[in-house]
Amino acid sequence: MSKKVLVLGGAGFIGMNIIKELGSRGDYQISIGDNFFRGKMDEQLTKLVEDYNIKVISADFTEASAFNELENDYDYVYMLASVVGVEYTQKVPNELIRINTALILNTLEWVKTTKCKKVLFTSTSECYAGTIEAFDYQVPTPEEVPLCIDDITHPRFTYAVTKMLGESGFMQYSKVYGFECTIVRYHNVYGPRMGFKHVIPQVVQRFLKNEDPFKVYGFDQTRAFNYIDDAVAGTIGAMESKDTNGEILHIGDMESEITIEQLIHYMGGLIGYKGTYERQGAHSGSVSRRCPDTSKAEKMIGYSPNVHWEEGVKKTVEWYVNYIQSGSEVFE
Fold first, then answer.
1. How crowded is residue 245: how many other Cβ atoms within 10 Å of its Cβ?
2. pTM greater than 0.90
3. How far is CA 330 from the centre of its chain?
4. Is 217 in the active site?
5. Count of alpha carbons within 13 Å of 8, Cβ hemisphere only?
6. Would you give per-residue pLDDT tens digits along the chain (332 residues)?
7. What are the extents of the domains in the chain?
8. Given 159, 173, 303, 320, the catalytic residue
9. CATH for 3-325, among 2.60.40.10, 3.90.1640.10, 3.30.420.40, 3.40.50.720?
C-alpha cells in the first residue's frame, strides 16, 4: 500500500530532490506545500509534478489558516520549510526569525490535531557552531554535542536559534501528542539548483566575473561538504526507519572535510581561472572547522555517502556555469 507523504518546503533545493527520489520509487502519494518564495515553479519541478502526479498546495504557511488546505492523515511529513542562507541572516534577521518561528509553531499546532504518523524536522550543524568555537568540542562531532552559539546579539546566529527552537519543539510536541518524530542535522549540503545564497554558486559567479586577485575568505577554515543525492538518501532513510523515533541524526560526509582554500582552488581549475589568489580572513561569525560524526546514522539506517566531494563539486560547478551562461535569471 502506498504511503501518503507531505513535503513542506517541497519546492526548495532539498525538498525537490526528496520528491524526485520518492517519485522515482513509485509507491508514494506525494503532496508538497510551499509559498514559492524562490519564484514560480521551474521547468524541473513542473516536470516532477506532472510525471509523479504530485499535489501542490501553494500557500503562505506562516499563516495558520494555510494548514486548512492540507489533509490530516499523512504517513510521513517532511518539515523542510524555512528561510536559510547567511545573506538573509545579515540583511533581514528579523524576518528570518519571524518566518521560521511561525513555520515551526504553525506546523506543530497543526500536527497535534491530525492523524499524521511521523514527522521529520530538518535542522542544521549551525546549532552547535558556538560549541566548537568556544569550547573546542571534538571534531568530527557527534549528535550529543551541546547546542551553543557564540553571541546572541550577532545576526549570523538567528537561523541557528530558530532551528534550536524547532528541535526542541518537535521533540516535545511528539511526546505529548503521540506522533513519531526524527530530526536530521544537515552539514553543508550542496548540488545543482541550490540557489545563489551559498558558497559554491557565489564563488562560481565571482570566477565568471574574472576577479583578480580572487580573495579567498576564511581560506584555512574547513567544511565537510555533503552532495545532495547522499543527503536525500540519509533523510529518507531516517524517516522510514522504524528505529529513529525520538532520535537526532547527523547527515553529512565525515570523509570529505577540506579547507575553503582547497575548494576554491579546485573550482578555479574546473573553470579555467588564470588569475591569482589572495588569502583573506573569515567573515564574522563563521565557524573555523565543521565536520560531522555520522557513525550513528551509519549504524541506525545504513547511511553511507557515495559521492566524493570532487565529483559532486564538478557536477555542481558545471550546472551553474551552464545556467549562468545561458542567461537564465538568478534565483533565491
1. 12
2. yes
3. 19
4. no
5. 30
6. 799 999 999 999 999 999 999 999 999 999 999 998 765 678 899 999 999 999 999 999 999 999 999 999 999 999 999 988 777 888 899 999 999 999 999 999 999 999 999 999 999 999 998 898 889 899 999 999 999 988 899 998 999 999 999 999 999 999 999 999 999 999 999 999 998 888 999 999 999 999 999 999 999 999 999 999 999 999 999 999 999 999 999 999 999 999 999 999 999 999 999 999 999 998 877 889 999 999 999 999 999 999 999 999 999 999 999 999 998 777 76
7. 3-325
8. 159
9. 3.40.50.720
